[in-house]
Each structure stands twice: as structure tokens, then as C-alpha cells.
Amino acid sequence: MSSRQVKHPGDEELVRRAKEGDQSAFEALVRNHQDEVFTLAMRLVSKPELAADVSQEAFIRAWRALPKFRGDAQFGTWLYRIVVNTAWTLRKRSQRHQAAPIDEGALNVRDTGISPEQWGEGALLRVSLQRELDQLGPGQRAVVVMKDVYGYSHDEVAEALGISVTAAKVRLHRARKRLRDGLFMEAS
Amino acid sequence: MNVGHISSLRRMPGVVDGPTGSDAHIAQCLICQAESAKYRTLVRALASLRHQIMTAPDGLVQAVMSDLGRAPMSARRNKAGQAAAAGVAVAVAGAIAVAGWRRRTAA
Question: What is the ipTM of this complex?
């Protein structure tokens, strides 16, 4: 199982009902996934207002496309692909939103699946890393977030962003190098 | 950094995917080992971001649900469209049949 897959109990039943047009079932799905969707959107666009727009639009697109969801993948996995596509298509709106680096204190960030010791060890590095991610252009940031944070394959990244696999690999290589330069230059 | 280092960097874990770490140069070169360690740290730190979840803004659920009205499901829209088209086809066929019957009756 890749790191991007998130399963909420009861999703399958909610999806079945939502596909039949049950809006209350879809509302429950939105509640289950809103934090994950917003987090992914924030990682991709780095601006809270735009991330909220992306999240809202992604859920609307998911509702529209729900009859086509065949259940081959988990609902969360399918939904995240829609979030990535939405963030990519709405990225031009980012010029209208004031740049605001992620302030995790203000955004109420919680940690899952990580021990307090692990969290403490990497906290400073993650703060620096987030700052460096915010400095990347949208194309490089999308690739590195999809591949290295969420565990998508090169093929999936390329398909979602409408670029070739080779271009995705080149972008990833350049993005990692920029992150590495920023992080370890800062530390030295 | 000489060409040997650069060549080896391209094969390090975290720099590109594919065969990694098998280069004899890396095993013997402290510079490349240090570089490789930095990339491994970077990749681990990136993966750890996956465990940080941000709380969505208040009102997102309500905003989505209020927008559902303007976003009919694709299949349902198609079904509605097909039903409308079928209805129009039946009406047209009926009108043609009636017109033909009237012509025959008049003649």
C-alpha cells in the first residue's frame, strides 16, 4: 500500500449511497476527507485561501464524476487524483491570492502515525523543508509532493500533470536538488 | 566536484530512481557518501510530511454542499438528456403520424 492511500471506515457504503444521489452520504464523505484533501491542496499550492478553493472545487468535481468511480482504487486515492488535477488547473488563480507560506501553528496541524520521539527529531528539519517547498515553482512542487510525500508513481505524476514521464523525472531531480541545496546550505 | 562524483550522484538513492548505490565509487568516496546521506535525509523528511494533517477551514463542508445543486452528476445528467431526447423523438414521430393520417383522411 502506498502512503497516499487513506481509508475511512464506512467509505464504501457511503460511496454506494452517494452514487445513487444521496447528498447526506456525500456530505459524510466530505467530512471524512476534508482535512486530508485540504492538506494535499496546501502542499500543492501553499496558500490557504487557494487551497480552500481547490478543496471545494475538487469535492464538486468528485460529486460530478462519482458515477464513473468504479471502486478499483480506494475512494481516497481516487479523490486525491482529482485534488491534484484541480490544483493544477487552478494554479493560475494563485496570482490573485497573496502568497502566504504555510504557518502550521495557525493552520492547526496534527501528526498521525508518528511517535513523539520521531516527531521531535525531525521537527526543525520539516519546518525548513516546508519553507524550501514553498520556494519551488508550481511544477516542481507538484511533482515532488506527489512523488516523495504521497508516493505516486512517475506514470501517475506524469498523467496527472499532463507531462511526459521523462519530464516528470527531470522535474523531480531538479526539485530534489533545489531542496537539498536549500536545506543543507542553510544548515551549514 | 569532479566528473566521478557527478556520475555517482546520478546513481544515488533519492537523486534518481532506478539502480542505486551499486557504484563502487560511492563505497569508497566520503564526499559521495555524505551527499547520499543528505539525499536520504531529504527523502525521509519529505515522506514524513505525509503524517502531518492540517485542519480544513470552517465552512468547507457547507460550501461544498451548497454548491452540489449546480453540479449534477454526470451519469444522471446523461440519463436526463437521453430521456429528454427520447421524449422529443416520440413527439416528433407522433406529429408526423398525425399529419399523415390527416392528409389521408382529407384525401
Answer: 0.77
